[in-house]
Design brief:
It catalyses: D-arabinose 5-phosphate + phosphoenolpyruvate + H2O = 3-deoxy-alpha-D-manno-2-octulosonate-8-phosphate + phosphate. One of its GO terms (molecular function) is 3-deoxy-8-phosphooctulonate synthase activity. It is found in: Cytoplasm. Helices cover 33% and strands 19% of the residues. The protein contains eight helices and 15 strands. The chain is globular and about 45 Å long. The two termini are 23 Å apart.
């Protein structure tokens, strides 16, 4: 894979020798459940030699319905995320939606995430960049991958050179997203590590009327394809029981299936990174 700038997230490097996995529930529901997910994911990632970052939202400000569950909120949610990072011993990423949240969130988490719909918001990018934290910026569903050069430029001009770019599918209307895997090397050519969001790529925004739908059956095939092309990180939403998840259940991967999925990713990643030859694959 082409060399890119390595991004330090607490004690791990995204874009280095290891694949990084960012995984957790879509939104924080209970502290105990989130901590349990973080600990289990850390164990699985360690088994396969992957870096691990816990992800969850403290507030889902972009829900389909105003009546949808949004999370525990800024103050309590960030306290939970900080404590999960300490107790599980893992770096943490969460998304912010407004400029004022950047400095507050940066005191509690290790990586700030800019949601796809907001990646062109100059004030939000600038505020996040000024915190000194690395950023994970999701490519908007309506943008071409090469257009992320301007997004990266805004971040760098605002003081942040540690930028990860994340692919999460492109919208063509009628609740469907499509992934053009050419976008991964295109964005990586901007000098940034690239993350592939497997579960949001199979989301159906607004597909259930008052909430988003999705089809998790396609998440693993897309993960395999992304790793085969060569990515630095994978992003996925996981849950012990997706059917009762308060957000993004239809596209979340059940915890019971996570280890098997990571095993397949591990085998492909070894080949791509040149750790084994094709004749050695069993």
């Amino acid at each position: 894979m082409m060399d890119v700038k390595r991004v330090k997230v607490r004690d791990i490097e995204v874009g280095g020798e290891k694949l990084t996995v960012a995984a957790g529930p879509c939104v924080l529901d209970t502290f105990d459940e989130a901590l349990s997910i973080a600990r289990e994911m850390k164990k699985y990632c360690a088994e396969f030699g992957f870096n691990y970052i816990f992800k969850a939202s403290f507030d889902k400000a972009n829900r389909t319905s105003i009546k949808s569950y949004r999370g525990p909120g800024l103050e309590r949610g960030l306290e939970w995320l900080s404590e999960i990072g300490k107790e599980a011993g893992v770096p943490v990423v969460t998304d912010i939606h407004e400029p004022y949240q950047a400095e507050i969130a940066a005191k509690h988490v290790d990586l700030l995430q800019i949601p796809a719909f907001l990646c062109r918001q100059t004030d939000l990018l600038a505020a996040a960049s000024r915190t000194g934290r690395p950023l994970n910026v999701k490519k908007a569903q309506f943008m071409a991958p090469e257009d992320m050069a301007s997004v990266v430029g805004k971040c760098r001009e605002s003081g942040c050179r540690d930028v990860i770019l994340c692919e999460r599918g492109t919208s063509f209307g009628y609740h469907e997203l499509s992934v053009d895997f050419r976008s991964l090397p295109v964005m990586r050519a901007l000098g940034c590590p690239v993350m592939f969001d497997a579960t949001h790529s199979v989301q159906k925004p607004g597909g259930m009327g008052t909430c988003s739908g999705g089809d998790r059956a396609f998440a693993l095939p897309l993960m395999r394809a992304a790793v085969a092309i060569g990515v630095d990180a994978l992003f996925m939403e996981v849950h012990p029981d997706p059917e009762r998840a308060k957000c993004d259940g239809p596209n979340s991967i059940p915890m019971a299936d996570v280890r098997g999925a990571l095993r397949q990713v591990y085998e492909i990643d070894k080949v791509v990174r040149g750790k084994i030859g094709f004749t050695d694959v069993k």
